[in-house]
Amino acid sequence: MLSVGVAVPLFKEKDCIESLLKCLSNQIVKPSLVAFCINQPEIPVNCHVLDKNNDPDYLNNLNTEFIIRETKTPFQILIADNYSPGKRWDRKLHGAGLARKSAINLLLQQSNPPDILIFMDADTFYPQNYIQSILKNFTDKPSIDAIAAPYYHDLNNYDPIDRAILRYEIHLRWIAINSLQQSLPFSFTAFGSAISCRTTSYLKFGGMSNNQAGEDFYFLQKIVKKGILATWNPIAVSPSTRLSNRVIFGTGPALASGANKISEQYPLFNPGSFIELNSIYNFLGNLDQRSNQLLQQESWTEPLSLLLLILNKEKIVDIVTQIMNTKRPKQQLVKEKIDGLKSLQYLKTREGFHNNTNDLYRSYETIKPLPKSLQKVKNQFMSISTNDLNRIRNILYYLELKLRFKEWQTL
After folding, report:
1. Cα separation, 184 vs 174, whole angstroms
2. Per residue in 58-85, is it b (16+ CB within 10 Å) or e — as a string?
């Protein structure tokens, strides 16, 4: 059986760590190693909190480590102390990316590193068969390098937070469903607490970045560019719905902004934009030497002209020329040049054009069953009840799972 190591970044997680340790101890298939990186940024010199005994972040982290060391577990525990004075990171470097990477490094430094790396967060719930399902997934699909497991936020019966998380999740699932329907390469949803990968693949693709936030997105993007990512797993994780400002973007900051702001900041992109992205990827993936004449035309036609929305003309010419002349697989180079970040940039840029030209359904008779009230989520968010939001979320969740399973079968 494949051996498993779990990597967990920790920052002020005293209230969550016991639940995570219980989740791990109750797993049907237990990890052999669990590595924690307890961290906090260096305190500025001009800060009034200089005594560690008066620093609430330090005391929280100290108690977190105490709980870990005092809890009996059926696996070996490794701890990186990056929270004590003299061991902290510069505030410019501190963040989830470096903390997760440091925990992973603890696993890799062992004389017999685990075969599979599983990334977890302290505030996420993992069913007892989660690790078992991940190992079976890797065994059933020997070609895959990593897994981005499904997620599902449990509600906490506090209406403002529930509405915010439901609106945010509907936004994420709408992107995923449309991307999967159009077979776009970057159809994953990035949750650091739901990622696992082969150790060999982690090393091959350069590992985790030091980003203060979004390290999960950039890591999965690396996998999609040069490897194989599975986005389906039979067991989902349940991330926290707590407000947080510990990272600069993601679920916590989105919830903290409130449901109304989420509705503005996280739109339901028009399906036409995803169709256009599909045409761009197909066009670039089928370029040949004869395509050079297209660049010589004074006025470009679609889909080439659509790239002008996110790239200048000189950059497009350079990309097209590279793709035409490459001896590598063209599709791989296309994914490197028009990556997930550029795809999202395209969706945001194009939204203004599509906003008043089509509703959410006109282009998408093939996506069923779409709830009819989805249009109200886009245009009349305040008039829709929390129960209806939850019903819409659940419909989209199962539709997304169906599409992800269909994609997984082709791997």
Report:
1. 13
2. bebbbebbeebeeeeeebeebbbebbee
| Other C-beta atoms lying within 10 Å of the C-beta of residue 200 | 11
Q: Report the distance separating Cα 29 and Cα 26, nearest Å.
A: 9
Vertex 210: Cα angle to 209 and 211 (nearest 5): 95
CATH 3.90.550.10 for domain 4-151+189-236: yes
Residues spanned by CATH 3.90.550.10 within the chain?
4-151+189-236
Amino acid at the residue 311: L
Sheet of 116-119: strand order equals 76-82, 33-39, 4-10, 116-119, 195-198, 146-148, 229-230
Structure tokens at 9: 């970044």
Reported as a single tens digit per residue, the pLDDT across 321-376 is 999 999 999 999 999 999 999 999 999 999 877 665 455 555 445 565 666 677 77
Q: How far apart are the first and last CA of the chain?
A: 22
d(CA 167, CA 389): 7
pTM, to two decimals: 0.92
